[in-house]
Amino acid sequence: MLELKDVHKSFFPPQSLSNELAAFFLKKREPASRVQAVKGMSLSVRPGETLGLVGESGSGKSTLGRLMCGLHRPDRGQILFQGRDIAAFDKKRRKEFSLQVQFMFQDPASSLNPRMTAGAALAEGLTIHGLGGRSQRREAVFSLLEEVGLSPEMAERYPHQFSGGQRQRLCLARSLSLDPALLIADEPASALDVSIQAQIINLLLDLKDKRSLTLVLISHDLSLVCLMADRLAVMYGGILMELFPRSLLGEVNHHPYVKALWASADSAAEGGLILEGEPPDPHNPPPGCPFHPRCPEAGEICRLKAAPLLPVETDRFCACHWRKG
Ligand SMILES: Nc1ncnc2c1ncn2[C@@H]1O[C@H](COP(=O)(O)OP(=O)(O)OP(=O)(O)O)[C@@H](O)[C@H]1O
Ligand SMILES: [Mg+2]
After folding, report:
1. Cα separation of 100 and 94, whole Å?
2. What CATH number did the domain enclosing 157 receive?
């Protein structure tokens, strides 16, 4: 459904206004000052699957999600939707793409307009795309509310009148309002209490089945993602470290980072290590494999050269010098 080929994305770090002006007038900005958020990412999302995208904070998950739905343009590399490069879409195809691929933002509170009622927020996409008449949109709003377990009266409420869990349901309803084929949900449960997290995740699973959605589920929490995902993509420092079917989790000689994540996520996992130290500083990443400063298996080559992502066994890919097929 979606394929990324060697996609890179970097950002200028947020600057103060005076720095911005100095950079503009003195043209002193060096490309080296950019933060490399996503580096050479290649992976595909298969129709109907749930792909779990996991990694610590700052590993580039949200950036990758935004690239997938066209909210960011890659600096380099290609993103193909149903086999076609999204950068080359004409106006009509771009519109189709924006209907079919929806992104659910990480922070539900800030993604809702506080001055817009729930009903208006749910109808907004339909209005923008000129879909349906007034009464059809009203019907659509009620059925969306019902689908996510909210009552029709709530259409008149404003976002601050909802609880955290209800707001997340509202965001979910909004991202489904255009009936997408692919939903990219960025940390859909992480802002919520643990008890409510499970409800949202179950709702997401129900809706995925009912609507035959393809789902990219972004989360820092491996134990949560592994409950839902068909395949797992684990990122570290902007790089894809391992891509594998969930059935293999804990069953194979994983990338040392995945081992560490799994050991801290699952107390039953044996032989894992405890993840010590901090993720790499994005402004000053280490040379070689980004994980080498924390890796118990790191050797000379890891300090010098990042390992390419290579097939290790059927359907499993790993970027580690010590794990090759
Ligand atoms: N718009 C932006 N401008 C500047 N830097 C950015 C921007 N978006 C992301 N970054 C930087 O890119 C890196 C990756 O960020 P990203 O938000 O993709 O990580 P993440 O894995 O989603 O983290 P989290 O789990 O905290 O949400 C970080 O260093 C971040 O500061
Ligand atoms: Mg994020």
Report:
1. 10
2. 3.40.50.300
Length in residues, the chain: 325
**Is residue 37, in this structure, part of any structural domain at all?**
yes
Q: Mutation test of ligand 1: which of 62, 186, 224 has the most ligand atoms closer than 8 Å to its C-beta?
A: 62
- CA 279 / ligand 1 centre spacing (Å): 13
Q: Token pair for residue 27?
A: 């043209």
Measuring CA to CA, which residue among 218, 163, 186, 208 is closest to residue 48? 208
H or E stretch including 206? helix 194-211
- Closest CA relative to residue 58, chosen from 36, 41, 79: 36
Give the pTM: 0.90
The CA 301 to ligand 1 mean position distance, Å, reads 28
What tens digit of pLDDT does each residue of 101-135 get?
999 988 877 788 999 999 999 999 999 888 888 89
Is 283 within a domain? no
* Span from the CA of 173 to the centroid of ligand 1 (angstroms): 25
Q: Which residue is it, tokens 């890919």?
A: 317
Residue type, 243: L
Residue 192 near residue 164, CB atoms below 8 Å: yes
The pair of structure tokens assigned to 99 is: 């209907």
